[in-house]
Every structure is written in C-alpha cells, then in structure tokens.
Amino acid sequence: MKNTHSISITNNLLKTTLESLIKHNNKNAIVELLANMLTTSPNGIDYFIRFSLGEPYPNLPEINTSGLVAINDLVWASDDREILRNSVFNKNDCIEVVVLELNGLHEYSPLKISFPFVENDETSIRTANISLDRFIVDDFGLFNEDLAI
Fold first, then answer.
1. Contacts for 147 with CB less than 8 Å, ≥ 6 apart
2. Where does 42-101 have alpha helices with state H?
3. Which of 18, 55, 56, 97 could form a disulfide with 113 if both were Cys (CB 3.0 to 4.6 A apart)?
4. CB–CB of 62/68 below 8 Å?
5. What is the mean pLDDT of the chain?
6. What is the mean pLDDT of residues 3-32?
7. Closest Cα to residue 14, out of 45, 57, 53, 54?
8. For residue 117, what are the contacts with CB-CB under 8 A and spacing of at least 6?
9. In the predicted model, what is the mean pLDDT of residues 5-19?
10. What gap in Å lies between CA 102 and CA 109, rounded to an integer?
11. How far is CA 77 from the centre of its chain?
12. How far apart are CA 127 and CA 105, in angstroms?
C-alpha cells in the first residue's frame, strides 16, 4: 500500500486502474512496469491519483523561461544565503532564475534552474533543482534574459 498525502492506494487498485487505462496487446507487462515505477515515486503516484480524479496536467515553464525563486528555497547554506541577500541580484529576497531542464513531475524537484552568484567580486552561474511551487513565473518579461545558458 502506498500513502500519498491522505490517500492510500493498494497495489491491486493501482494495477486495476492502470489496466482500465491501457489498451494494448502487451498490457500486463506495461501495467507491471508502470505500477512498479509509480509505487517507488511519491510524486509520481500523487500525480497519477490527481490525474485519475480529473485534475489537469500543470502548466510547466518552458526551457529558458525566466522567473524568481526565494533565496531560502534556492540555497541551504547560511553563508550562501547571506551572499545572495547582499548581491545586486536580490529582488525582495528573491533571485532571478532561468529554467534549464524539466526533470519530470515524478521527481521531487522537477525543475533544474540556473541563477547568478557573486562571490569575491566574481559572478558565476550556479544551478539548483526546485519544486514547481517554488518557481515564480515572469509573466511580464521583466527579468534579465542574459541568464540563459
């Protein structure tokens, strides 16, 4: 049995649901593969249940989309947080970022992003993986497009 937030789903229920969705002459092998993949991915099973209940697929930012991420969600080390807070790139405790890759919704952090980091008067580009809810889309094109790698 797999718990996803407050919903529990048994392996048999998962397989029955998959079987009802898949119409293929090799359905049993496909069901086994997908069931095993879904039960090892908390986000994968969570999204599977949500989609099965009718929730639409989320809007994902495209590669090279710019946005903002809160400094506290971007770096964990307190020294790095302090450097970002004091940098010219700080915008209300957020940093401009650019989406580099989409890792897949089944991943804990489905977005790989890049962001500028200034240390010892040298600017470099760092990367991080973040969750969808931490990414604030730049709907108005206000951010620097030079961050794309």
1. 66, 96, 97, 98, 114, 115, 116, 125
2. 42-52, 71-74, 78-85
3. 97
4. no
5. 85
6. 81
7. 45
8. 80, 83, 84, 87, 123, 124, 125, 126
9. 78
10. 9
11. 21
12. 19
